[in-house]
Design a protein that fits this description.
This protein has 8 helices and 4 strands; from the N terminus they run E-H-H-H-H-H-H-H-E-E-H-E. By secondary structure, the protein is of the alpha+beta class. It has 2 domains: about 15-210, Alpha-lytic protease prodomain-like; about 215-290, Alpha-Beta Plaits, CATH 3.30.70.1350. The chain has a 4-stranded mixed sheet, with helices on one face. Helix 2 (about 45-70) runs antiparallel to helix 3 (about 85-115) and helix 4 runs antiparallel to helix 5. It is elongated, with a radius of gyration of 26 Å.
Length: about 300
């Protein structure tokens, strides 16, 4: 059975792995300082921020490796897609770890409400200031890349939440220093946890849908069927699959049944028409079509395997 296959590439800005690497080293320094400072001061919020930063160091390293793989490793006979999905896996991992850590922090914060601790607020204040400056600089470094890459967006969210967390910890440190409101430490930890879940959930769902081979949300699949059936000579379209390889590449495959026993050159002309339709109207840049004529098979649009 013959197939027609096409691929249309898009130009995307090259990601700056160097900026991500700088952010990793900054986060390592912040994590070490906050772990030491958290135990010395007795602040759960500071320890929570340190644990959060530690998870970020791991996640940012995963993002960096994924970025390098996606941009340097090419397709081979064994990896026919190369490592194009590495960044999606990294985005999923980053978002999932944030959600898990946020839940753990929330549980610990609730326990602290019943047993407020005296906290050395000066240590909290200074380390929070360091966290704000370092994470703020990291956010600026990768902000541009985050606009067009899901993996970098997840890393960006990690760093942004780190910076905002440090702002909250700073406010809490000031309240503890000047008003002795030590229960604010647990409140801040709980608020940070809720914010982390809120910021991570969308990236988690987007990356999960891609890994599960779901069709993009913005594509109305039945519209594709209607448009293809308008093409002269096409009798039926069935056995359709639409999925995203990553956030940049959307794939489409289908069986096309023809009214007449056409020549291969006629099939190529129709394929070009379908490919043009898919790329310009539905932003699908990779297409595989199988021609059929009077073949006795299942004609359902979506086949239940």
């Amino acid at each position: 059975m013959a197939h027609n296959h096409s691929h249309h590439g898009h130009e995307h800005p090259k990601l700056s792995g160097k900026n991500l690497l700088i952010s990793i080293f900054l986060n390592i320094l912040i994590t070490v300082a906050q772990i030491i400072g958290g135990f010395l001061s007795g602040s759960l919020a500071l320890i929570s921020d340190a644990v959060h930063n530690l998870s970020d160091v791991i996640s940012l390293i995963v993002s960096y490796v994924a970025n390098r793989l996606a941009n340097s490793k090419k397709q081979t006979l064994k990896q026919t897609f190369g490592f194009k999905r590495a960044e999606i896996i990294a985005a999923f991992f980053n978002a999932a770890t944030l959600i898990v850590i946020a839940v753990m922090l929330a549980i610990e914060a609730i326990k602290r409400f019943n047993e407020p601790h005296h906290i050395q607020s000066n240590i909290v204040i200074w380390l929070a200031l360091i966290g704000i400056l370092a994470n703020g600089f990291s956010v600026l470094l990768i902000k541009k890349d985050a606009n067009h890459n899901l993996n970098m967006k997840s890393a960006y969210l990690h760093l942004l939440t780190d910076m905002l967390t440090s702002v909250a910890v700073l406010v809490g440190g000031l309240l503890m220093k000047y008003y002795q409101i030590f229960w604010i430490d647990a409140v801040l930890t709980l608020l940070i946890s809720v914010y982390l879940i809120y910021m991570s959930w969308r990236v988690f769902l987007e990356s999960l849908k891609i890994l599960m081979l779901f069709a993009p949300d913005d594509i109305v699949i039945k519209d594709i069927e209607k448009e293809i059936l308008k093409i002269e000579g096409v009798k039926n379209i069935h056995h359709v699959h639409i999925w995203q390889l990553n956030e940049k590449n959307c794939h489409f495959e289908a069986h096309i049944e023809f009214k007449n026993d056409i020549k291969l050159s006629d099939f190529d002309s129709i394929c070009e028409e379908i490919e043009h339709l898919l790329i310009h109207d539905f932003n699908i840049n990779h297409c595989s079509l199988q021609p059929e004529f009077n073949r006795d098979d299942e004609k359902a649009f979506i086949i239940q395997d």
